[in-house]
Amino acid sequence: MTARQKAIEAISSHKVTSTQNYLEHAGEDIYGSYVFHEAAQRQFLAKAVFKKLRRTIEGIEPFDPAIADAVAQGVKEWAMAHGATHYTHWFVPMTGATAEKHDSFLNPAGEGQTIAEFSGKVLLQGEPDASSFPSGGIRATFEARGYTAWDVTSPIFLQVEPNGVTLTIPTAFVSYTGEALDHKIPLLRSQEALGKQALRVLRWFGNSTSSRVFTNIGPEQEYFLVDRRLAEQRPDILLAGRTLFGAPSPKGQELEDQYFGAIRERILAFMMDLDRELWRLGIPSKTRHNEVAPGQFEMAPVYESASVGSDHNMLVMSVMKRLAPQHGLALLMHEKPFKGVNGSGKHNNWSMGTDDGENLLEPGRDPHANAQFLAVLAAIIRGVHTHADLLRATVADAGNDHRLGANEAPPAIVSIFLGEQLEDVVMQLESGVASSSKKSGKIELGVSSLPVLPMDATDRNRTSPFAFTGNKFEFRAVGSSAPIYWPQTVLNTIVADSMEKLADDLEKLAPNDMAGLSKILSAIVKEHKQVLFSGNGYSEEWHAEAAKRGLPNNKSTVDALPALETEKAKKVFSKFGVLSERELAARAEINWERYVKVQNIEANCAIEMAKTMILPATAKYLAEISVAASVSKGVKQVSDKVAALADKLVDGIHALEKAHHGAHEAGSLHAEAKTYKEKVIPAQEALREVVDELETLVSDELWPLPKYRELLFQY
Ligand code: ADP
Ligand code: MG
């Protein structure tokens, strides 16, 4: 029996085992049990310390170092009561994965004795060696010093594993020179920038009660699960996170029976496990369902503040990765694990709110009469139009290149969908005052026993990258594996830029000068309405139309990343102190490097698999049918075809090797990336075509790689 057959036999007798005592741990009783949340803080901290800490967490005052030791003591007691022996500063370096280094609480105290120690200093600041994290040129290898600093706004939590517990402190990561080396710091800076400008706008509208404006996010997370025993037989899945070869399965997603379909027992067991783990971590996991492609699923949390929500999304991904093997599953977080079926994204729902509970994106029943909402909306339209290229660059990477613009995900053209009602109101604004809002209706089902449904004023548009969905925008172009700090950072910054202009203009007007306001909004709409589009974003016509409107259409990472290197980009980031020129340049550099490295890994992997797995299987098959070919014309035909493909395979390997070599020789990083895009990827695609055709001819028994039909349907 081959390894594939063994795996399939094992899958067919796989038993789903229960991993959660769901009656005892129903939900609300476990929610946040791994988190040093408000109730735990109250219990483990002296009253005065507790009160002061809360004021920092709620953004009212900066952290007072005088309470650091007392807080650390309380945190330690709480953690040790839960069995913790170690602590770690947890951060998100520019690798895009989280990082942590564990230290134990124990300190030797004389012969055979230890005491558990955890000081305020250790809580506040860590010093991981920064030299082995990407810095985009900010740090040389010999300049190793970097610091982690406690992010008081993100809850401290426990990582609970079968053999012990680690106290985990979310932190920001900076270099010795004070430059951001992580994804968190720029996000926090962008929040402050946006909050400040938005508050100026609110003040003009007479709001005197709110003291802070911040952003909320709800990232919907798509992912694939396949059987681990099959996945581990594929070097491409292990190393590249996606299949580099694979003929289409005879059945794909065409019956449309997967989306929202009944969830298989084994998958549901994973999801239930996941939900409980997330609840324990205080992550408000809410929605779970089958997605469009076979083997594809989605989870969505309830929205939270942008920085906590972004941290939580990192945790969601890592908890998924940890739990999947316990269910005999492999998690594929890649944007496009399988050619020919849908890939995975992360819909990033985004809104702005005040500390006293107002959502600035809530249009109300009569949006035309809601002047403040219209002003905020106009500012967003201007920000997104002015910096569409930047927003596009935030979702550019090798994985997402397989998805964007592929008629399953939004196009690479950034446009805004407002829906019929709002678009109508915005068009009225152009010519002066908006005086009416199209009304929502009712949906009669024609069956007396069924309820009459209220109809939303606006339909949805799944093809738009940036869609208004009721009281929030949904940025739908983010890749499934990407951390979401960076897209948020850019969104906040470009909206802050536009809000600043709006506030400058408003502050020149007398309070309540609605005619003056109309003039400002009308000018914004006139200049920026080109970015509004409610048609089919997948269509050819839109590409032509967008070009006419002058909207950027940066189809690949190589086309998109230069947007980070323009004067316009430098200006907008440095103006608000979100990123200095050096910090921005570092980010661009890291993105280019990452693209090149991913393509390099994929090319290496494809070459090795073709040489050591596909070619031997092909040769073996030719030998196996050679006798039959000498007596059967039909078999001879097949044998000739396979022999010809074997030659093509070897040629294809050589061509890819040559192109790959060319990339290494290209010189600059930009030139290397360009060579990967223009030469290596096409060579790899050509090789794939040969391999995929061989897969349809070579004996199933000899084929060394688990096939699409097995990966997508056998779990
Ligand atoms: P939709 O059906 O429009 O996709 P859902 O209700 O399913 O909306 O929510 C999708 C995600 O958007 C969820 O994570 C949800 O918590 C989040 N969300 C809802 N309202 C807001 C808001 N005002 N700001 C940010 N995210 C929000
Ligand atoms: Mg949605």
Structure description:
There is one protein chain. By secondary structure, the protein is α+β, with helices and mostly antiparallel strands. It has four domains: 1-20 and 221-342, Glutamine synthetase/guanido kinase, catalytic domain (Creatine Kinase, Chain A, domain 2), CATH 3.30.590.10; 31-182, Roll (Ubiquitin-like (UB roll)), CATH 3.10.20; 186-220 and 345-439 and 453-579, no CATH class; 595-713, Up-down Bundle (Four Helix Bundle (Hemerythrin (Met), subunit A)), CATH 1.20.120. Strands 9, 10, 11, 12, 13, 14, 15, 18 and 19 form a nine-stranded mixed beta sheet that branches. A hairpin with a 2-residue loop joins strand 7 (157-161) and strand 8. Helix 11 (371-386) runs parallel beside helix 15 (514-528). The longest helix is centred in the C-terminal third of the chain and has 51 residues, at 581-631. The chain starts with a helix and ends with a helix. Bound molecules: adenosine-5'-diphosphate and magnesium ion. The site of adenosine-5'-diphosphate has 15 residues, from strand 9, strand 11 and strand 14.
Describe the structure using short key phrases:
single chain, 715 residues, alpha+beta, Creatine Kinase, Chain A, domain 2, Ubiquitin-like (UB roll), six-stranded mixed β-sheet, 22 helices, globular, binds adenosine-5'-diphosphate, binds magnesium ion
The portion of residues forming beta strands comes to: 5-15%
Poorly predicted regions are: none
Q: How widely separated are the two ends? A: 19 Å
What composes the largest sheet? Answer: 9 strands, mixed
What is the average per-residue confidence, as pLDDT, rounded to a whole number?
A: 93
Residues in helices, as a percent range: 40-55%
Radius of gyration: 28 Å
Structure class: alpha+beta
How many helices? Answer: 22
Attached small molecules: adenosine-5'-diphosphate, magnesium ion
Number of domains: 4
